[in-house]
Amino acid sequence: MKQAAVLKSRYQPASEALFSGRVTGSHDEIYQVTTDAGVIFTARKADGCLLRPEPGDVVLLWDGGSEGCYILSVLVKSGTESRVDFTGDATIRIDAGTLRIQAPDLVMDGEKTASLCAPEITVTAVKGNASFYAFSFLSKVCTAKMEKASAVIRTLDSTIDRITERVRNSFRWIENVEQVRAGRISYFIRERFSARAKHASLKADEDVTIDGKKIHLG
Questions:
Q1: Contact yes or no for 61/43 (Cβ under 8 A)
Q2: Residue 7's pLDDT is what?
Q3: 185 or 7: whose pLDDT is higher?
Q4: What's residue 114's pLDDT?
Q5: Per-residue DSSP letters for 110-129?
Q6: Residue 16: what are its φ and ψ, rounded to 5°?
Q7: Phi, psi (rounded to 5 degrees) for 34
């Protein structure tokens, strides 16, 4: 019986306590917390405490004895900036409902990559800006409706199987050379066709046909 009593007293669980204190310093994820009584604790941030403690914040501290001290929650922020930290990979899952993030300014910053994947994605804004050093776009079907568009391109290379255009008016200014290589070219003009050049040359390996009610040369 004496031996049983000794074993019971030897394995009594360590006392646990909750305190509130103010963060007075931090180094390598170790925080120094000072209570109102002047007791100083060194603690780590608990995994459930998503908000990152900053110097001056009032926090809830758990003293687990041999388990160490952990900051369970940030009670009062000393500044206006809040930071949420996750250890390792993190997943936010909502089985039903909608996840809505509202803020005057929303910034998403991925140090390596950022991915957005969904069966349907909608982006709505009054004004948009996109800047890429290298950009790749892949789509099976693309539809674009624009009232006005302008583009400044230094070099453009395109490979297209077929182009069909319906244009009300078309104007082009080419400073140097325009060259077209085609198997056949056909022009169907309802009214007048006019071509003017300082020097003109028309060459054919076989036949040249000019047909009209009236032909004026010179």
A1: yes
A2: 37
A3: 185
A4: 87
A5: -SS------SS-----SS--
A6: -120, 145
A7: -115, 125
Distance, CA of 121 to CA of 201 (rounded, Å): 55
Which residue, among 34, 75, 74, has the nearest Cα to 53 in the 3D structure? Answer: 74
Model confidence, pTM: 0.58
Rounded Cα distance, 58 and 172, in Å: 68
Phi, psi dihedral angles at 27 (to 5 degrees): -160, 120
Q: Identify the sign of the CA torsion 83, 88, 89, 90.
A: negative
The full set of domains in the chain, from first to last, is 12-102 (2.40.50.140)
The shares of helix, strand and coil residues in the chain, as percent rounded to the nearest 5, are 5, 20, 75
Distance from C-alpha of 84 to C-alpha of 77, rounded to nearest angstrom: 13
Backbone φ and ψ for 60, nearest 5 degrees, come out as -100, 125
Hey, what amino acid is at 155? T
Q: What whole-number percentage of the chain has pLDDT above 90?
A: 41
DSSP designation for 12: P
What single-letter DSSP state applies at residue 84?
B
The per-residue b/e assignment along 67-83, b for 16 or more CB within 10 angstroms, e otherwise, is eebbbebbeeeeeeeee
